[in-house]
Write a structure and sequence with these properties.
With 434 residues, the protein is an alpha/beta fold. The protein contains 14 helices and 16 strands. It folds into two domains: 122 residues, Aspartate Aminotransferase, domain 1 (Alpha-Beta Complex); 265 residues, 3-Layer(aba) Sandwich (Aspartate Aminotransferase, domain 2), CATH 3.40.640.10. Strand 10, helix 9 and strand 11 form a beta-alpha-beta unit. Helix 4 runs parallel beside helix 11.
Length: 434
């Protein structure tokens, strides 16, 4: 039993090594971890006194920077009222306010909000909504989903089943997962002139399997953890048209792309389309408290509520948590009142200019930027622990995955801070062999 009021860096590391299983890591964790004492703005302060500029916004969630006074105050105010109350049979002001905010800012028609605890669960809920929608009509054969290769939708089992089954990080579970239908990843780049040939495979599959497909599920415009690829809004627009034509629901996973990350408030806005179901998470609370939401339109909610079971069969214990919803309301307000469009556009311009220098390095396969997302794709997977340590030596927090070295900073980042990040990426990658 510990009786220390404050733990030293060595104490933290020893306990971590003994008991904490980190994400996507072995146990005990062979790679070094870096204890954080506090954070401010875009800076992480380590317990040993070092300071790092965070280039990942803690997995893309900390939109407004760390320790923001407005978000802190929202948590403090709500904490003095009620930290948690069940949403079964009860409600509260923060959940009502946040639901209305999300309905107001998401694509037209999405007017029902089901809250949950994480992005993966939001996807599970979306898939379940689509299945129950068809079950309510007696179409029990509609149990498959049409998804995009190179997509990523989460780590829970149904979410894993619509991730890329071959190259995705969950391919080892493929024999245990329900097998769905996969179309080739969009080959049309974001700014590329549209050619209908890019949709041939998708069009063929949705026509061939339309009687058994419950929904198409995709990450609009930007495929993120599956490869950081950016594709044409025309592709998304045509997918929406085909889903309507063949009476298939469309699920848009905006967990990573939502709240301005791609330059539009939601990635669907690039194509001016509205999905039947949309998943939100990550930046929903500005990185403060885990919270996710699955929105749907009247078509989906009416069918589920009026036929079949007559109710949507899901209910997380902590859904609509008052603390999380209160900070979510504050975060959305903060975003909408800010100059986020100018901030994201400025970040995009700087990333485009400064990361371009990496393109000529021997180890680099490609460089691409969209909104506040900058990606340097390597030719080979680097040694994770070594490259991570080098970035820390440079005074930055950049955490690659696979061949991808990426930046998704907080929108408040200053030009000199972003320059430090891009220079560090160039410095570290220049040391790698092709």
């Amino acid at each position: 039993m510990l009786d220390k009021s404050t733990l030293s860096t060595d104490d933290i590391l020893a306990l971590d090594q003994a008991h904490v299983w980190h994400p996507y890591a072995a146990f005990p964790n062979p790679a070094p971890v870096y204890p954080v004492s506090h954070a401010e703005g875009v800076h992480l302060h380590l317990t040993d006194g070092r300071q790092l500029i965070d280039g990942t916004a803690s997995w893309w969630s900390v939109l407004h920077g760390y320790n923001h006074p407005v978000l802190n105050k929202a948590v403090e105010n709500q904490l003095a009222k009620v930290a948690h109350v069940m949403l079964g049979g009860l409600t509260h002001e923060p959940v009502a306010r946040l639901a209305k905010q999300l309905v107001d800012i998401t694509p037209e028609g999405l007017n029902k909000v089901f809250f949950s605890d994480s992005g993966s669960v939001a996807v599970e809920i979306a898939l379940k909504m689509a299945l129950q929608y068809w079950f309510a009509q007696g179409q029990h054969q509609r149990t498959q989903f049409l998804a995009l290769r190179s997509g990523y939708h989460g780590d829970t089992f149904a979410a894993m089943s619509v991730c890329d089954p071959i190259s995705g990080m969950h391919s080892m579970f493929n024999q245990f997962l329900k097998h769905h239908i996969f179309t080739e990843a969009p080959a049309c780049k974001f700014d590329e002139e549209w050619d209908e040939r890019h949709l041939i495979n998708f069009s063929h599959l949705i026509q061939q399997h339309r009687q058994k497909i419950a929904a198409v599920v995709l990450e609009p415009i930007a495929q993120n953890a599956g490869g950081m690829r950016f594709y044409s809004p025309h592709y998304l627009r045509r997918v929406r048209e085909l889903c309507t034509q063949f009476d298939v629901l469309l699920i848009a996973d905006e967990i990573a792309t939502g709240f301005g990350r791609t330059g539009e408030l939601f990635a669907c806005d690039h194509a001016r389309i509205s999905p039947d179901i949309m998943c939100l998470g990550k930046a929903l609370t500005g990185g403060y408290i885990t919270l996710a939401a699955t929105l749907c339109n009247d078509k989906v909610s009416d069918m589920i509520s009026q036929k079949g079971a007559g109710a949507f069969m899901h209910g997380p214990t902590f859904m609509g948590n008052p603390l999380a919803c209160a900070v979510g309301v504050a975060s959305v307000n903060l975003l909408l009142k800010s100059h986020w469009q100018l901030q994201v556009a400025s970040i995009q311009t700087q990333l485009t200019q400064e990361l371009e220098a990496c393109r000529g390095l021997p180890a680099v396969a490609d460089v691409r930027v969209l909104g506040a997302i900058g990606v340097v794709e390597l030719k080979q997977v680097p040694h994770m622990a070594s490259i991570q340590a080098r970035f820390v030596e440079e005074g930055v927090w950049v955490r690659p995955f696979g061949k991808l070295v990426y930046l998704m900073p907080s929108y408040i980042i200053k030009p000199d801070e972003l320059r430090h990040l891009t220079r560090s990426i160039y410095n570290v990658i220049s040391e790698l062999e092709a």
